[in-house]
Amino acid sequence: xxxxxIIGRTVVVLILxxxxxxxxxxxxxxxxxxxKAMSQPAPEVIVPVETVQPARMDIxxxxxxxxxxxxxxxxxxxxxxxxxxxxxxxxxxxPVQPGQVVAVVNRDxxxxxxxxxxxxCDGKGVVSRILLNPGASVNPSTPLMNxxxxxxxxxxxxxxxxxxxxxxxxxxARVTLEAYPGETFAAxxxxxxxxxxxxxxxxxxxxxxxxxxxRIKPGMYAEVEWIESRRPALVVPLTAVVDRGGQxxxxxxxxxxxxxxxxTIGAVVGDVVEILSGLKGDERIVTTGAGQLxxxxxxxxxxxxxxxV
Length: 309
Fold this sequence. Notes:
Low-confidence stretches: none
CATH class of the largest domain: Mainly Beta
Largest sheet: 6 strands, antiparallel, barrel
Structural class: mainly beta
Strand order of the largest sheet: 2-9-12-11-10-13
Shape: elongated
Number of strands: 20
Helix content: 10-25%
Mean pLDDT: 88
Number of helices: 1
Radius of gyration: 42 Å
CATH architecture of the largest domain: Beta Barrel
Protein backbone atom coordinates (compact mmCIF):
# COMPACT_ATOMS: atom_id res chain seq x y z
CA UNK A 1 0.00 0.00 0.00
CA UNK A 2 2.73 2.44 0.94
CA UNK A 3 4.59 1.76 -2.30
CA UNK A 4 1.47 2.44 -4.37
CA UNK A 5 0.89 5.76 -2.63
CA ILE A 6 4.47 6.80 -3.23
CA ILE A 7 4.20 5.93 -6.92
CA GLY A 8 0.94 7.89 -7.21
CA ARG A 9 2.45 10.95 -5.63
CA THR A 10 5.47 10.70 -7.87
CA VAL A 11 3.26 10.61 -10.96
CA VAL A 12 1.34 13.71 -9.85
CA VAL A 13 4.58 15.58 -9.20
CA LEU A 14 5.94 14.62 -12.61
CA ILE A 15 2.72 15.76 -14.29
CA LEU A 16 2.86 19.13 -12.48
CA UNK A 17 6.50 19.56 -13.44
CA UNK A 18 5.71 18.76 -17.08
CA UNK A 19 2.76 21.19 -17.07
CA UNK A 20 4.88 23.95 -15.56
CA UNK A 21 7.59 23.34 -18.13
CA UNK A 22 5.02 23.50 -20.94
CA UNK A 23 3.53 26.75 -19.65
CA UNK A 24 6.99 28.25 -19.28
CA UNK A 25 7.87 27.18 -22.79
CA UNK A 26 4.73 28.74 -24.29
CA UNK A 27 5.18 31.94 -22.28
CA UNK A 28 8.75 32.24 -23.47
CA UNK A 29 7.58 31.72 -27.07
CA UNK A 30 5.02 34.54 -26.69
CA UNK A 31 7.62 36.89 -25.22
CA UNK A 32 10.04 36.16 -28.01
CA UNK A 33 7.33 36.70 -30.62
CA UNK A 34 6.42 40.07 -29.10
CA UNK A 35 10.07 41.12 -28.99
CA LYS A 36 10.46 40.14 -32.63
CA ALA A 37 7.33 42.09 -33.62
CA MET A 38 8.48 45.15 -31.67
CA SER A 39 11.89 45.04 -33.25
CA GLN A 40 10.41 45.19 -36.74
CA PRO A 41 9.74 48.69 -38.21
CA ALA A 42 6.09 49.86 -38.35
CA PRO A 43 4.51 49.70 -41.81
CA GLU A 44 4.92 52.98 -43.69
CA VAL A 45 1.72 55.11 -43.93
CA ILE A 46 1.33 57.15 -47.10
CA VAL A 47 -1.76 59.37 -47.39
CA PRO A 48 -3.31 59.74 -50.86
CA VAL A 49 -4.11 63.39 -51.65
CA GLU A 50 -5.22 65.66 -54.46
CA THR A 51 -3.54 69.00 -55.13
CA VAL A 52 -4.30 72.20 -56.98
CA GLN A 53 -2.36 75.37 -57.73
CA PRO A 54 -3.68 78.60 -56.20
CA ALA A 55 -5.64 80.75 -58.67
CA ARG A 56 -5.85 84.47 -59.21
CA MET A 57 -9.21 86.18 -59.67
CA ASP A 58 -10.93 89.51 -59.15
CA ILE A 59 -12.99 89.58 -55.96
CA UNK A 60 -15.99 91.88 -55.83
CA UNK A 61 -17.27 92.69 -52.36
CA UNK A 62 -20.81 94.00 -52.14
CA UNK A 63 -23.19 95.71 -49.73
CA UNK A 64 -26.53 93.97 -49.31
CA UNK A 65 -29.73 95.49 -47.96
CA UNK A 66 -33.39 94.55 -47.97
CA UNK A 67 -36.50 96.68 -48.17
CA UNK A 68 -39.68 97.21 -50.14
CA UNK A 69 -40.95 99.01 -53.21
CA UNK A 70 -42.90 102.24 -52.81
CA UNK A 71 -44.71 104.46 -55.27
CA UNK A 72 -42.93 107.62 -56.38
CA UNK A 73 -45.88 109.56 -54.94
CA UNK A 74 -49.33 108.87 -53.51
CA UNK A 75 -52.42 111.06 -53.67
CA UNK A 76 -55.86 110.88 -52.09
CA UNK A 77 -58.75 112.41 -54.09
CA UNK A 78 -61.49 114.34 -52.24
CA UNK A 79 -64.79 115.94 -53.19
CA UNK A 80 -64.92 119.67 -52.58
CA UNK A 81 -68.64 119.47 -51.72
CA UNK A 82 -70.83 117.32 -49.49
CA UNK A 83 -73.33 114.91 -50.96
CA UNK A 84 -73.62 111.37 -52.22
CA UNK A 85 -71.56 109.68 -54.88
CA UNK A 86 -73.61 109.32 -58.03
CA UNK A 87 -70.96 107.60 -60.11
CA UNK A 88 -67.32 106.58 -60.10
CA UNK A 89 -65.90 107.12 -63.57
CA UNK A 90 -62.68 105.16 -62.98
CA UNK A 91 -61.78 101.85 -61.42
CA UNK A 92 -58.74 100.32 -59.71
CA UNK A 93 -55.84 100.32 -62.17
CA UNK A 94 -57.24 103.11 -64.35
CA PRO A 95 -54.63 105.66 -65.49
CA VAL A 96 -55.70 109.26 -64.91
CA GLN A 97 -54.39 112.66 -65.95
CA PRO A 98 -54.49 116.02 -64.17
CA GLY A 99 -57.94 117.61 -64.52
CA GLN A 100 -59.66 114.36 -65.47
CA VAL A 101 -63.15 113.84 -63.97
CA VAL A 102 -63.06 110.71 -61.82
CA ALA A 103 -66.41 110.84 -59.96
CA VAL A 104 -69.73 112.65 -59.83
CA VAL A 105 -71.33 113.78 -56.55
CA ASN A 106 -74.97 114.83 -56.10
CA ARG A 107 -75.27 117.63 -53.58
CA ASP A 108 -78.09 116.97 -51.11
CA UNK A 109 -78.65 120.35 -49.46
CA UNK A 110 -82.38 120.83 -48.77
CA UNK A 111 -84.06 123.68 -50.65
CA UNK A 112 -81.36 123.97 -53.30
CA UNK A 113 -81.13 122.50 -56.75
CA UNK A 114 -77.51 121.94 -57.70
CA UNK A 115 -75.99 120.43 -60.78
CA UNK A 116 -74.01 117.24 -60.19
CA UNK A 117 -70.52 118.11 -58.99
CA UNK A 118 -67.62 116.74 -60.95
CA UNK A 119 -64.69 115.52 -58.88
CA UNK A 120 -61.46 116.10 -60.78
CA CYS A 121 -58.01 114.64 -60.29
CA ASP A 122 -55.24 117.03 -59.26
CA GLY A 123 -52.37 114.82 -60.37
CA LYS A 124 -51.21 112.07 -62.69
CA GLY A 125 -51.06 108.40 -61.84
CA VAL A 126 -52.93 105.14 -61.52
CA VAL A 127 -55.94 104.47 -59.30
CA SER A 128 -54.72 102.14 -56.55
CA ARG A 129 -57.94 101.87 -54.55
CA ILE A 130 -61.60 102.95 -54.73
CA LEU A 131 -62.61 103.81 -51.19
CA LEU A 132 -66.33 104.62 -51.62
CA ASN A 133 -69.01 103.26 -53.91
CA PRO A 134 -72.01 105.08 -55.49
CA GLY A 135 -74.58 106.03 -52.86
CA ALA A 136 -72.04 106.68 -50.15
CA SER A 137 -72.12 110.03 -48.39
CA VAL A 138 -69.07 112.25 -48.76
CA ASN A 139 -67.79 115.59 -47.52
CA PRO A 140 -64.63 117.60 -48.21
CA SER A 141 -62.69 115.57 -45.60
CA THR A 142 -63.68 112.16 -46.97
CA PRO A 143 -61.28 110.54 -49.49
CA LEU A 144 -62.98 108.93 -52.48
CA MET A 145 -60.02 107.06 -53.94
CA ASN A 146 -56.23 106.80 -53.87
CA UNK A 147 -53.84 107.50 -56.73
CA UNK A 148 -50.20 106.38 -57.12
CA UNK A 149 -47.47 107.51 -59.50
CA UNK A 150 -45.57 104.38 -60.59
CA UNK A 151 -43.94 105.31 -63.91
CA UNK A 152 -40.96 105.55 -61.58
CA UNK A 153 -40.90 103.69 -58.27
CA UNK A 154 -38.49 103.69 -55.37
CA UNK A 155 -36.90 100.92 -53.38
CA UNK A 156 -36.50 101.85 -49.72
CA UNK A 157 -33.78 99.69 -48.18
CA UNK A 158 -32.32 99.52 -44.66
CA UNK A 159 -28.51 99.73 -44.83
CA UNK A 160 -26.33 98.68 -41.88
CA UNK A 161 -24.79 101.72 -40.20
CA UNK A 162 -21.33 100.13 -40.60
CA UNK A 163 -21.73 100.29 -44.39
CA UNK A 164 -23.60 103.56 -44.88
CA UNK A 165 -20.38 105.55 -45.39
CA UNK A 166 -19.84 103.56 -48.59
CA UNK A 167 -23.21 104.52 -50.11
CA UNK A 168 -23.19 107.77 -52.11
CA UNK A 169 -25.93 109.93 -53.62
CA UNK A 170 -26.40 109.16 -57.30
CA UNK A 171 -24.58 105.81 -57.00
CA UNK A 172 -25.91 102.96 -59.11
CA ALA A 173 -27.15 99.69 -57.61
CA ARG A 174 -28.88 96.47 -58.57
CA VAL A 175 -32.33 95.52 -57.30
CA THR A 176 -33.78 92.01 -57.34
CA LEU A 177 -37.39 91.11 -56.64
CA GLU A 178 -38.87 87.82 -55.48
CA ALA A 179 -41.66 88.39 -58.00
CA TYR A 180 -39.17 88.17 -60.89
CA PRO A 181 -36.51 85.57 -60.02
CA GLY A 182 -33.38 85.76 -62.14
CA GLU A 183 -33.98 89.39 -63.19
CA THR A 184 -32.12 92.46 -61.99
CA PHE A 185 -33.30 96.06 -62.18
CA ALA A 186 -31.04 99.08 -62.43
CA ALA A 187 -31.50 101.68 -59.71
CA UNK A 188 -29.86 104.86 -58.50
CA UNK A 189 -29.59 106.34 -55.00
CA UNK A 190 -31.83 109.41 -54.70
CA UNK A 191 -32.05 109.94 -50.95
CA UNK A 192 -30.25 108.90 -47.75
CA UNK A 193 -32.01 109.37 -44.43
CA UNK A 194 -30.30 111.78 -42.03
CA UNK A 195 -31.13 109.57 -39.04
CA UNK A 196 -30.53 105.95 -38.03
CA UNK A 197 -33.02 103.48 -36.63
CA UNK A 198 -31.94 103.09 -32.97
CA UNK A 199 -33.45 99.60 -32.75
CA UNK A 200 -31.64 97.80 -35.59
CA UNK A 201 -28.92 100.41 -36.34
CA UNK A 202 -29.82 100.86 -39.99
CA UNK A 203 -30.29 103.90 -42.23
CA UNK A 204 -33.00 104.09 -44.88
CA UNK A 205 -31.78 104.63 -48.41
CA UNK A 206 -34.13 105.43 -51.31
CA UNK A 207 -33.32 104.29 -54.84
CA UNK A 208 -35.18 105.25 -58.00
CA UNK A 209 -36.19 102.58 -60.56
CA UNK A 210 -37.72 103.23 -64.01
CA UNK A 211 -41.05 101.38 -64.29
CA UNK A 212 -42.66 102.33 -67.59
CA UNK A 213 -44.39 98.94 -67.92
CA UNK A 214 -45.70 99.08 -64.34
CA ARG A 215 -44.33 95.57 -63.68
CA ILE A 216 -42.87 96.65 -60.36
CA LYS A 217 -45.62 97.07 -57.78
CA PRO A 218 -45.49 99.10 -54.57
CA GLY A 219 -45.26 96.77 -51.59
CA MET A 220 -43.02 94.17 -53.28
CA TYR A 221 -40.08 92.79 -51.30
CA ALA A 222 -36.75 94.03 -52.68
CA GLU A 223 -33.07 93.19 -52.23
CA VAL A 224 -30.50 95.83 -53.10
CA GLU A 225 -26.81 95.31 -53.87
CA TRP A 226 -24.00 97.85 -54.21
CA ILE A 227 -20.43 97.14 -55.25
CA GLU A 228 -18.19 97.97 -52.29
CA SER A 229 -14.81 97.10 -53.80
CA ARG A 230 -13.14 95.08 -56.55
CA ARG A 231 -9.59 93.80 -56.27
CA PRO A 232 -7.28 91.04 -57.59
CA ALA A 233 -6.78 88.18 -55.17
CA LEU A 234 -5.05 84.82 -54.68
CA VAL A 235 -7.57 82.09 -53.84
CA VAL A 236 -7.60 78.39 -52.94
CA PRO A 237 -10.49 75.94 -52.48
CA LEU A 238 -12.17 76.10 -49.09
CA THR A 239 -11.38 72.40 -48.61
CA ALA A 240 -7.66 73.23 -48.59
CA VAL A 241 -7.82 75.36 -45.44
CA VAL A 242 -7.68 73.61 -42.05
CA ASP A 243 -8.04 75.08 -38.59
CA ARG A 244 -5.59 74.05 -35.87
CA GLY A 245 -6.06 75.83 -32.57
CA GLY A 246 -7.66 78.88 -34.14
CA GLN A 247 -4.90 79.32 -36.73
CA UNK A 248 -5.59 78.68 -40.42
CA UNK A 249 -3.19 76.43 -42.33
CA UNK A 250 -2.79 74.87 -45.75
CA UNK A 251 -0.62 71.93 -46.78
CA UNK A 252 1.50 71.89 -49.90
CA UNK A 253 3.22 68.92 -51.55
CA UNK A 254 7.02 68.93 -51.23
CA UNK A 255 8.84 65.87 -52.63
CA UNK A 256 6.43 63.34 -51.17
CA UNK A 257 5.90 65.20 -47.90
CA UNK A 258 3.06 67.43 -46.69
CA UNK A 259 4.35 70.79 -45.51
CA UNK A 260 2.03 72.77 -43.25
CA UNK A 261 2.12 76.55 -43.59
CA UNK A 262 0.06 79.20 -41.72
CA UNK A 263 -2.05 81.53 -43.85
CA THR A 264 -4.27 84.57 -43.38
CA ILE A 265 -7.61 84.31 -45.13
CA GLY A 266 -9.88 87.02 -46.50
CA ALA A 267 -13.19 86.97 -48.33
CA VAL A 268 -15.03 83.75 -49.11
CA VAL A 269 -16.46 83.66 -52.65
CA GLY A 270 -18.49 80.57 -53.44
CA ASP A 271 -16.26 77.54 -52.80
CA VAL A 272 -12.95 79.42 -52.75
CA VAL A 273 -11.33 81.61 -50.12
CA GLU A 274 -8.95 84.55 -50.49
CA ILE A 275 -5.41 84.10 -49.15
CA LEU A 276 -4.07 87.42 -47.85
CA SER A 277 -0.67 86.09 -46.74
CA GLY A 278 1.34 82.87 -46.48
CA LEU A 279 1.42 81.72 -50.12
CA LYS A 280 3.33 82.85 -53.20
CA GLY A 281 0.99 81.23 -55.69
CA ASP A 282 3.22 78.57 -57.26
CA GLU A 283 2.71 75.88 -54.59
CA ARG A 284 0.79 72.64 -55.10
CA ILE A 285 -1.86 72.93 -52.41
CA VAL A 286 -3.45 69.81 -50.92
CA THR A 287 -7.24 69.83 -51.22
CA THR A 288 -8.74 66.37 -50.81
CA GLY A 289 -7.16 64.75 -47.75
CA ALA A 290 -5.91 67.94 -46.08
CA GLY A 291 -8.00 67.43 -42.96
CA GLN A 292 -6.20 64.23 -41.95
CA LEU A 293 -2.64 65.46 -42.44
CA UNK A 294 0.06 66.61 -40.07
CA UNK A 295 3.26 68.42 -40.92
CA UNK A 296 5.81 66.21 -42.76
CA UNK A 297 3.38 63.32 -43.26
CA UNK A 298 4.21 61.20 -46.28
CA UNK A 299 1.76 61.70 -49.14
CA UNK A 300 1.06 60.40 -52.59
CA UNK A 301 -0.47 62.81 -55.10
CA UNK A 302 -3.18 60.85 -56.92
CA UNK A 303 -4.57 63.85 -58.82
CA UNK A 304 -3.20 67.30 -59.58
CA UNK A 305 -5.28 70.08 -61.10
CA UNK A 306 -4.20 73.38 -62.62
CA UNK A 307 -5.23 76.72 -61.14
CA UNK A 308 -8.99 77.15 -61.52
CA VAL A 309 -11.87 79.09 -60.00
